[in-house]
TrEMBL record:
This is 6-phosphogluconate dehydrogenase NADP-binding domain-containing protein. Belongs to the HIBADH-related family. NP60 subfamily. Pfam families: NAD_binding_11 (PF14833), NAD_binding_2 (PF03446). PANTHER family: CYTOKINE-LIKE NUCLEAR FACTOR N-PAC (PTHR43580:SF2), OXIDOREDUCTASE GLYR1-RELATED (PTHR43580). GO terms for cellular component: cytoplasm.
Amino acid sequence: MMTQRTQTSSCTLRYKQRFVTSCRPLVTLSSAAPGKTTLGFVGMGILGVPMTLNLLKAGYEVVVYNRNIQKTDPVVAAGAQVATTPRECAQRAQYIFATLSDPQAAISVANGPDGIASGISAGKGYIDISTVDAETSNIIATAIKSTGASFLEAPVSGSKAPAEQGKLIFLTAGDEELFKAVEGPLDVMGKAKYYLGGVGSGANMKLVVNMLNGSMMAALAEAMALADKSGLSQADLLEVLSLGAMANPMFALKGPAVVERSYPPAFPLKHQQKDLRLALALGDSLGQPLPVAAAANEAYKMAKAKGQANSDMAAVYEATQH
Ligand SMILES: NC(=O)C1=CN([C@@H]2O[C@H](COP(=O)(O)OP(=O)(O)OC[C@H]3O[C@@H](n4cnc5c(N)ncnc54)[C@H](OP(=O)(O)O)[C@@H]3O)[C@@H](O)[C@H]2O)C=CC1
Ligand SMILES: O=CC(=O)O
């Protein structure tokens, strides 16, 4: 049986006091329950498909939209219905989730012609799971809330396997009543959920986490390149790391891909580079020096230039090879 451990951070309580009045919705939201609530899901990518499959398995009705309609096939086979535009998805569902590539895609789906904002209305909610910056999230929140609907940003920590296993970690912010209304679906898709406060807090937390993720992977790639150049076995290096204080699940997962130089995408390299780019912009805006992340970003840019954009992020190793 799927494990659904749920925790709410202690900072939730701190922020609750601060945002409870500013985020009061115009219309009371009802709790999303299987068999009673139609959910929408936009973006049938690496994350969107397994997340939707888990919602269907839990008994929710789900209406999906994807720009390339063929990518809806696996969820349609499991019982999902298809909308022809994000607007239709928002009209047919009460709570609409989306997981899209980047800020441009997220704004286009939410605010563009036939976008979510043109179909959503009071009593409904939009939950954007895409990893974007706080500015993008605020642009989307403004458009959604101008319709009377509610908005929650909910980027996730976790990759393809946690999405399949319902073990993602939600980093949410925005309308707290919407967070409460969609606790059921969030618990189906994740093992933990945090409500972090006003719009932007979830986006910033995700960027901080992924800045570290990207820097760690780039550092591992360099260590593995140096080991190899020194005539050492990369597999031996991974074993040594696994036994000491630097052991971590990410090295254990991505290290073998580097040894094999085989990078089937779980977290596409282009998305990791986008996250570093957005984290660096956040650092710039706050006057926070980020020299390690800046160097890591260059490594991902080099790997992209070597044709690895759609490979897994572990392909940053290719930037070390000349
Ligand atoms: N994969 C992972 O491990 C994780 C990813 N994330 C984040 O989640 C988000 C989604 O990731 P992932 O599922 O891997 O990404 P994918 O690249 O697999 O999927 C991206 C989705 O965005 C859609 N899309 C892109 N541009 C547009 C557009 N202009 N209009 C409409 N739809 C568009 C794609 O549609 P189409 O199929 O038509 O191209 C596709 O459905 C990203 O922000 C990523 O950074 C966060 C945590 C983990
Ligand atoms: O965003 C990627 C992840 O693994 O988390």
